[in-house]
Amino acid sequence: MKIFVILSLFCYSLAHTVLLPPHGIECFFEDLRKNDELSISFQVGDRNPQSTDQLTADFLITSPSGTVIRNTKGISHGTESVVANENGKYKYCFSNKDSPITTKDVTFNVHGVVYVDVNDPRSESVDMSVRKFQELVHDVKNEQGYQVVRERTHRNTAESTNSRVKWWSVFQLIIIASNSLFQIYYLKRFFEVKTVV
């Protein structure tokens, strides 16, 4: 029984990373039954370590009949959840159609929650407790992943600022040294005694 519960944890959550091409779209599918819940948490990052921008992408979920359930534009991170109202393949897509940036890196986790009838006397079973615990663990994992991307962005900004301050200080040092040498030369010429022979 324990092995089944541990293996079921891996079935209900999948972690993915995908690189969005410029003006491109990446789509994925999930088979759901009616009243199952699909929850997708994601964040958009940058593979370029020099980048300081917070990148965004578009997110779209469609039902098996082709109806658009969610359509979110320009989001950097978040969690989207839908409850299936029909059986079939639900499609979710990450889009970079409006941007020429080539380094958009989308990391996302898919959480599937199987519908459980509340009138079922077994709904408070160990399996349900494990699923609830699993959701809490995934929330913590997603928050940590978001913090890693945010830390990388802020670190790149800080390093860029430090580099600019360094080169500005070097420029100021050169100007001060040049000014000092000019003043010494000028004062030396000012106090020179010229004799006429």
Automatic annotation (TrEMBL):
Q: Which UniProt keywords apply?
A: Membrane, Signal, Transmembrane, Transmembrane helix
Q: Where in the cell is it found?
A: Endomembrane system; Membrane
Q: Which InterPro entries match?
A: Emp24-like, GOLD_dom, GOLD_dom_sf
Main subcellular location? membrane
Q: Which PROSITE patterns match?
A: GOLD (PS50866)
CC annotations in GO: COPII-coated ER to Golgi transport vesicle; endoplasmic reticulum; membrane
User: What range(s) does the GOLD domain occupy?
Assistant: 25-112
Q: Name one GO biological process term.
A: vesicle organization
Hey, what's the signal peptide range on this chain? 1-15
Q: How does it sit in the membrane?
A: Single-pass membrane protein; Single-pass type I membrane protein
Q: Which domain of life is it from?
A: Eukaryota
SMART domains linked: EMP24_GP25L
The text of the family note is: Belongs to the EMP24/GP25L family.
Q: What is this protein called?
A: Integral membrane component of endoplasmic reticulum-derived COPII-coated vesicles
